[in-house]
Amino acid sequence: MRTFPYQSSYEIGNLALALAPALTPEGIVETPSFFTGFAAQPQILARGLLVLADISATRYFKYVPVTLRDPVLTAQGDRLRAECFSACNGVYARLDLLQAGFDGEIGYGTTNVDIGLDLRKALTQVKQSDKLHVDIGGDGLATTHYNHASENNESPKAGNTNYDQSSIQHSNIFMAKSQAISNNPGQTVIERPVKMPDRWVRALGNAAEIHKGMEAGFTLKGPHAQAFIATLPPVTGKSQAGWLAPTRMGAKLSPAKTPGAVFVSGLHRLSALKRIMTNITAVTFYRPANAEPGAAMIVVEMQNCRITISLTAEAWHGYSGEGALLTSLAHQDLLEDSEIIGKKLTFNAIIDVLKMAQTWNMDTTRAEDALALLAVSGKLGYDAFDNAYFHRELPDDPDRILKDNPRLVAAQKLVEAVNKTGDLTWTVPSGDVDYRVIYDPDNGVEKCTCAWYLKHLNKRGPCKHILAVQLKEDDF
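Given the sequence above, the corresponding C-alpha cells read:
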C-alpha cells in the first residue's frame, strides 16, 4: 500500500498532479517529479485526463458508475503515458502526451497519478487559451497564476519573465508557504492510500499481447473523424455490435463484413471520447490480424497527443481473463531470457526487438517471446501506433505468473499423465475423462475435446489440456 502525499489540484493557470512513490532507473523514489513546465495544449491535456477518469469510473457491462481507480503513469523521456482500465475491466485506455506538447524535460519512471473527483470537476474549466503550468510530482504546494492572454497569445516558456509582477508575488507567497510547511513537522499533510488492483496487472499483460496482434483497418481524418465520435451512443445506451466501415461521411456500423471493416462489440464503450471530439485530427481503427471478430482498438490523434482505447471481444469479457499470454508462459526456457532482458530495460518508449535480439545473441522470435513473458508482470505495454513494446515498471511479485494464471497451474499438474497417441494427437486424463488434443503448432492447429475449448475456441487462450501438451512437448 502506497500513499499520495497531497491531492492533485487545479487553480487558474496551474495544474499539480500528485504522484505515489515511483519506480525509476535509480530505484524507488518516494517523492518523484516527472515534469515541471508549461503545456502547449492545455485543453487537450485536461480533456485527455478526463477521458481516462471517465473510463476508470465506469462499468460498461450492465452500466454502473463506480469509484474511480488511479491511472498508471509512466514517464519515458520523450513522452508521458497514463493508462487505466474500466471498472468492468473490458476497456483499456491510454493517454500518450508527447514531448512536443511540453516546454520542459520529461523524467523516467512509473507510478500512479491521482485524479480525484475534485480535480475532475476543475479540469472541465481549462480552456485552450489558458496559460497552464504543469507540475507532475514535486511538492504540489507552490502554485503560480498567469494571465489567460498575452499580447502575442503565446504560452510562456520556462525562463520567460513576460508575466506581471503580481504573478511573481503570488508565486513567492506559495513558495513561502511550501517552505513553512516543510519546516513544520506538526503541519497536516494529506495522504490518500493507493493500491494497484491485481486484476489490472493481469490485464496489462493480456492487453499487450492482444495489441501486438492488431493491424490497422482504416483511418478517418478531420471532420469525418469528429463526425464519427459525435454519433457514438451514450454510455448508458444499448450495446451495439457490428462491422465498422468507412463511408463518405465517416463510418457506419453494419451487420455485413466489407473490405477493411473492423468488428466492434459494445460501441457505447467508446463514449468517453466525446469529451475530446473537437480536438481530434484523425481516428484509426484496428482489428485482429486475421480480420475476424474479436478485440478492437482505435487510436485517436490530436495535436502532440494520442489516446488509445481497446475493447474486449465482448462487453462482458475482461482483459484480466483473456489468457493471451498462456502459450508463451508454457515455455520454461523463456524465463531466463526474460530475466536477462528485463534487467536492461530503462523505461524505453520504443523497444527495438531486432536490436535487442542482436545484443543478446538471440533470434528475433526468441526475443519477442521473452518480451511477451515480461508483459505478464506488467513490465511492458504495446503501442500499435508505433508497432513496438514500451517499458513500464510495476512492483514485482515472483509468484504472480502462477497466481494470475490458474490454468497454467492446472496444466502443470496434468503434464505427467499426458500420453502421445500419434504424430499430432495426445490424450490428457483429467478427472474421470480422457481428453483428446490435436497439437500442430507449425500449422497453428490446437484443438481439444473439452468444454472450455468448445466454448471459446482458443479466443481466450488455450485450455489447460492444450497447455499440458505444450509443457510436455518442451520436455521432448
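The chain is about 25% helix and 30% strand. Try to locate this feature in the C-alpha cell string yourself.
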